[in-house]
Amino acid sequence: MSSTPRIDSKIPTGPLEQKWTMYRSTVPLVNPANKRNLEVIVVGSGLAGSSAAASLAEMGYKVKVLCFQDSPRRAHSIAAQGGINAAKNYQNDGDSVYRLFYDTIKGGDYRAREANVYRLAEVSTHIIDQCVAQGVPFAREYGGTLSNRSFGGTQVQRTFYAAGQTGQQLLLGAYSALQRQVGMGSVQLLARHELLDVVVIDGKCRGIIARNLISGALERHFGHAVLLCTGGYGNVFYLSTNAMGSNVTAAWKAHKKGALFANPCFTQIHPTCIPVSGDHQSKLTLMSESLRNDGRIWVPKAKGDSRKPNDIPEDERDYYLERRYPAFGNLVPRDVASRAAKERCDAGFGVGASKMAVYLDFAANTERYGRVEANKLGLQNPSKSDVMRLGRAVVKEKYGNLFDMYKQITGEDPYEVPMRIYPAVHYTMGGLWVDYNLMTNIPGLYALGEANFSDHGANRLGASALMQGLADGYFVIPYTIGAYLSGEIKTKAIATDHDAFVKAEAQVQERIQKLMSIKGKRSVDYFHKRLGKIMWDECGMARNKTGLTSAIEAIKALRAEFWSDVRIPGDAMNFNPELEKAGRVADFLELGELMCIDALNREESCGGHFREEYQTEEGEALRQDETFSYVAAWEYNGDSAYTLYKEELQYENIKIAQRSYK
Amino acid sequence: MSNGTMNLTLKVWRQNNATERGRFETYNAQNISPDMSFLEMIDVVNEHLIQEGKDPIAFDHDCREGICGMCSMYINGRPHGPKQGVTTCQLHMRSFKNGDTIVVEPWRSAAFPVIKDLAVNRSSFDRIMSAGGFISVNTGNAKDANTILIPKDDADLAFDAAACIGCGACVAACKNASAMLFVSAKVSQLALLPQGQVERQARVLNMVKQMDAEGFGNCTNTGACEAECPKGISIENIARMNREYLKASMD
Amino acid sequence: MAQYKSLFSGSVGQKFTMGLTGLFLILFLIVHVSLNSLIFLNDGGASFNAGAHFMSHNPLIRVLEIGLFAGLIIHIVQALRLTLKNKKARPLDYAVNGGKFNSTWYSRSMGILGSLLLLFLIIHLANFWLPTKQALIKNTEHNTYTNLKQVFEKGYIVALYLLGVASLFYHLLHGFQSAFQTLGLNHKRYTPLIRKAGFGFSVLVCALFAAMPIALHFNILD
Known about the structure:
Largest sheet of chain B: 5 strands, mixed
Low-confidence stretches of chain A: none
Strand content of chain B: 5-15%
Largest sheet of chain A: 5 strands, parallel
Structural class of chain B: alpha+beta
Low-confidence stretches of chain B: none
Oligomer: heterotrimer
Number of domains of chain B: 2
Number of helices of chain A: 17
Radius of gyration of chain B: 20 Å
CATH topology of the largest domain in chain B: Fumarate Reductase Iron-sulfur Protein, Chain B, domain 2
């Protein structure tokens, strides 16, 4: 057993609205001359990584950025479609920092930290300012002001967007700020590099071991601080909306070196994805939540109805979200929408060839838009086809790229027939445990963005991931890192021939050798797919004790099989994507077990975590606030051995209630 | 949905690293579903190669939803294959017929050296961005977003240019391996916005200078880049960049 | 000031040179084709010869002629430099090239078309420009119209000229609008007009150029 880590969230004292302001005014600073001697390693180049690296370099720190992709611009933040929330209240619809804070805590089903979330809501407004200043081309109104749209789980319009490519535009903004620093020599960029271990010296994180993915060579990098901005671990399910390369490796290596892993079972299953079409499927594609603004979700009222969607008359359709949740309708939070879709399909009302899909139908709103357009044009009694044609043009402007993507993938035209959608793994709320400073329990090791657990509780609201990534990178870490680094100004750069570096590299080398020498019969993907199936079946949208218990055993067995039968072609000292995958899947095979352990431990339903044993009569999630109002932070104690630490959640500013969207 | 699977012959460029000579190898892809993406078809081929103890085909890919710009295959003479407006990952096998022979090559450009097989190194694009593809605004210096009013048409045009995913298909398609479409898209986006005005002249001069230093060819206005761009970036951007360059040079 | 250098160097600057000299040569074509057209007045070459005399004896034109040759040489040298750089930008070509799917063949063949034009130009200069110059040096009177008729008596020369004109046609078809694009003269409304004008110009100029040898060879005029 390693030493007991203290769970101290280091939340500043004082009233909620004053915490961050007071903190910022009192946090120790590092003077410019000292900053030049302090080295920071940023791992990952998505919204959190790029924005943190650029901001820290602007402040004067010496920064190194690693990403496994060929360019920082390719990090998976790029794929976020719908938008980014900010409490600007530009729409004059009653939005405020408090309301964004409240919506986020409630949306997270009361499993997030108040202080962190309030800070997130506070800095959200600055993010939009910063991005606009960088030249991010957000959607605009004719008067030249910024445009907003609505997202799930809220009743205000606070989502800023750039067509269906908001993540792309925000990332390119952060990437350009990063490349500016690279050009100035303040950031050293190491693309196609993957972290394979963190180096801890005297209890503090002092660097990393990375593999150059082109040459295969292992490298040692020293840093006074290391920031893991490495995203989520949804790919443990094999099929997810994550990029193929998205992985848990960096976070997992940190975990195995002592960092606590918090709420690993909190997984977000996104309700609107393109359904699986066959065994060949390598990934799932999301259809933005913004589509739920204008699409109505339904299934036939009759079980096993095999008529074409357009042949099913209005009164034989069940708009089940509108029926069950009249107040929020199609805009209920993601976890609620996903479960409702699963419930309908499991009950035999699913549509499409697989019967594991529901319809997302734009006809009603297309017609509504068409009528508005017809009125604008002064058309008297326009024909239905004219109305639909005009309406389609409006829909095209709003969602054209998404509709094209859908058509590309399915071969069906969503302007003519309703989309078929089904939930898919999308985001992981769990991650490395961090305190208010975003520091893990290993001093000097930080986790930002999706890689940490801190802001979304048991369910993330739409358009909040981009907000959190950029908040952490632009506006939180530049302040909070000073709290630690101000104490490190006397620490000289440690030479990488230090024992700890040599030992860590030797261990990494040994593991690679071991993987290469198995020379079994099965490909890495074979194991990954099997792991994904176990996870989806037993630790997916609905979980229960029996399933989770059996999944833990099944994963252990699969892991043993992997380590005796995986086949990795080629050699380690070359560009070798199979070897990269193998290392990542090996880590997923450990993480999957911990996720099941966590899900088994949490005997309640909350947000994305639905334990079948704990539900209301109407099938809604039933929290157990008395016993489970805590963050479950797990410590690694060797193979399959984990110790649970609890961070109790205190709600001083919000009254905990049963979440209701009815 | 079609149930008929197909059998295809692939001729794929194999090259062990940047310095070794490459060659074509022929593979059979069998029982390919028309619903597979092109990359999923390559996954199937690779699965067989691994089973046979052979080296699988190395290729770049990541998001597989057409936005990260990582995938980069030159298929039957065209970047991202026969379908317009899509990346390789969004090209589906229903675009091919049973019995087809498909030739797959990497992007070929001196500025994009081959790493292995179909994967190339595009860090030249990053260096061009470092030369000027930004607005110099440090974190924390921004004023309220709505104090900058931008006409919707300008914002839309800037967005169209900003939609570039940096995949390099423009370079691959151009007979001169020119990177003008990529560079001009960024120059245009920032020239169209009020925030980009301060550095407007230095930006275009520096980015073009870096583009030349990377060894890209020159634009001869064939329009191949625009035709093959998966995001439909217009060559109007190249004209705008030329104009910007002209103004900057004369000022 | 240092920036002026960038105006003529680097990929964009070198392209400006191509575009500007190209447009300058296009202006010359207008003069040339206008002069040629004088034969269609059907006055036994009188107007044509008068024009030719003016062109060969007017001091201003003779200065411009030097400019014309300079423009031509710059156009050629710059094209060669750019072509070499372009070749270096793709050391190893594709095994399968699908250029036909994304661009016109003549836009991809400006180098070949230009080279054909140059060969044609050498023959053309030997046929007409050289005799005129020789006469000028010897201070003898030169009947260009007669010269024309003699040259175009031979069928293979007419065929050669038609080939030259065809090269010119395709070179112009791409070059005309390309020059505007290169100089940044691009506009949603006007670019389609420029394209149409370029097409019209190429057809008209080349038709007139082609008509001359045909008319003279088949004695259509007399």
